[in-house]
Amino acid sequence: MSRAFGPSVLIALFLGSANLLNGQQPVSPTSLLIGALAGMGGSSIQTVTLAGSAESIAGSSDDTGTFTGNCAMNGSSQLSLQLSGGSRTENRQVTNNIPTGSWIDSSGAQHPMVQHNLYTPASWFCPVVALSQLVSSSSVNVQFIGNEQKNGTTLGHFTVTCTPAVMTSPVPTLITHLTQVDLY
């Protein structure tokens, strides 16, 4: 099971590569992701703002409301949730290749984010920005897992793991697991 930001993060990328659809192993998984990014207009996008309905499920708690998400190619993001049970805002940024972040609760109190939660892309909610950050990083390992069926469509499954610039844990296997993002 992959973990990123609590639940698994799955980014749907429809890759039109004949190699993937024919079941052939691609020469370079990273080059295929770069091609997918180009197909999504990745080089022309600098910032993205998303807004919509949100549902937060934590154990037996099920809360609904709205969200606003802002992300930028420079690695910064802000995700604000306005739920019936209260609000929460998460701010993340990258300075000198070191990710930092905090979250603000309903009472306005600011809390630092745990370091291992900062190792995956800050813009996980915006596939084009997240993919751009992943393929431009020198500390990622991209693997092609194989073709899989998702909702009746054959998709290429890639796993991306990161090696953080600042290693705060003596257990690299755990850090690799915590940074894993699955791309389809």
Explain what this protein looks like in three dimensions.
With 184 residues, the protein is α+β, with helices and mostly antiparallel strands. It contains four helices and ten strands, in the order βααββββββαββαβ. It has one domain (10-183). 17% of the residues lie in helices and 42% in strands. Helix 2 runs antiparallel to helix 3 (127-136). The longest helix is centred in the N-terminal third of the chain and has 11 residues, at 29-39. The radius of gyration is 17 Å and the shape is globular. The two termini are 15 Å apart. Residues 1-21 have low confidence and may be disordered.
List keywords for this structure.
10 strands, 42% strand, 4 helices, 6-stranded antiparallel sheet
Distance between the termini: 15 Å
The structural class is: alpha+beta
Low-confidence spans: pLDDT under 50, at least 5 residues? 1-21
State the domain count.
1
Strand content: 35-45%
- Computed CA radius of gyration, to the nearest angstrom: 17 Å
